[in-house]
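Researcher: Let's do a round of design. I'm pasting the structure tokens now; please hold your answer until I've finished.
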């Protein structure tokens, strides 16, 4: 199946005549409605791709065991630089990554090209209006993006585009836990000035989006929840083996990872911080003994919602 390519026609996202890109376009309703930190043209999508954790191949195998429909079309919504999207290209005839952010899409396309992957398209769109035909999608994945969505708009769209035999898998990870410093990243995100710069969906993400399980149950007849390393709800099953890579980070890698957080981008963009010492550098200098050679073992607690119509 991998590498088999067939043409599908993709309607364009809604746009005014003459628009080819939506970033920084203040008059455009599409961009205004989905503008996020990651959609700013100054956002560094390459750094995001290089320093964020990724999902291992076991993740794909693990949820594909639950998917009994076709493997013609998989869609990864909120695809970012294509971290999960590209993993799907081995398992589906055609894969589409959708994201509102130009810089994420540019990075995703160039990564696919560099890897010689031809059965993938990256298109602009958002949770509330998917550029996809009714009942056309076999698998819809959402990796670390659900908390950016409006579930009341997204869930009807998911129901519209999925085939009756389709599967929706939404997963995300919480603060990574460093061996011997398990609370350090949580401290950085919650108890420094960065805490004021997260988007509203952050609290939902930190809880593994489990508060949305009842909403999923309204739209899907069969909803399962998996989590690692502990059960997040009574209905949860422990996810083994864990999905996330890497299990070890260098000191520079750790710092660079935290600098991909949207709150850090927002903090940097706030003129009030122009003359402040870098909040992340200062935090690690004060709280983590290190040399530039230091490495840290890390585990990534994660949460997975798997939803099917029956
Ligand atoms: C934390 S990143 C996750 C990227 C990638 N899926 C990953 O696993 O690393 C969240 C992504 O969701 C996208 N996003 C934000 N709001 C969105 C929306 N309303 N609809 C679809 N995607 C959205 C952002 O542009 C960003 O690329």
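Researcher: That's everything. Go ahead.
Model: Designed sequence:
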């Amino acid at each position: 199946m991998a590498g088999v390519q067939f043409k599908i026609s993709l309607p364009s996202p809604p746009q005014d005549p003459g628009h080819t890109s939506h970033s920084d376009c203040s008059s455009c309703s599409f961009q205004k409605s989905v503008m996020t930190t990651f959609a700013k043209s100054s956002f560094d999508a390459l750094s995001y791709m290089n320093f964020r954790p990724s999902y291992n191949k076991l993740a794909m195998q693990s949820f594909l065991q639950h998917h009994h429909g076709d493997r013609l079309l998989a869609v990864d919504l909120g695809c970012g630089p294509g971290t999960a999207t590209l993993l799907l290209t081995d398992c589906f005839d055609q894969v589409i990554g959708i994201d509102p952010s130009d810089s994420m899409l540019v990075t995703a396309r160039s990564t696919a090209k560099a890897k010689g992957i031809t059965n993938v398209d990256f298109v602009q769109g958002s949770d509330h209006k998917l550029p996809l035909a009714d009942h056309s999608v076999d698998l819809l994945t959402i990796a670390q993006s659900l908390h950016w969505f409006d579930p009341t708009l997204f869930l009807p769209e998911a129901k519209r585009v999925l085939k009756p035999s389709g599967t929706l898998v939404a997963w995300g990870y919480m603060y990574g836990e460093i061996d011997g410093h398990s609370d350090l990243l949580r401290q950085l995100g919650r108890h420094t000035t960065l805490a004021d710069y997260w988007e509203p969906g952050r609290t939902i993400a930190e809880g593994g989006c489990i508060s949305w399980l009842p909403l999923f149950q309204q739209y899907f007849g069969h909803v399962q929840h998996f989590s690692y390393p502990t059960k997040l709800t009574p209905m949860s099953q422990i996810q083994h083996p864990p999905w996330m890579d890497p299990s070890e980070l260098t000191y520079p890698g750790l710092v660079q990872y935290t600098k991909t957080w949207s709150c850090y981008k927002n903090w940097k963009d706030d003129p009030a911080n122009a003359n402040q010492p870098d909040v992340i550098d200062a935090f690690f200098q004060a709280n983590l003994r290190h040399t530039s050679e230091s490495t840290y073992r890390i585990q990534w607690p994660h949460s997975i919602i798997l939803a099917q119509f029956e």
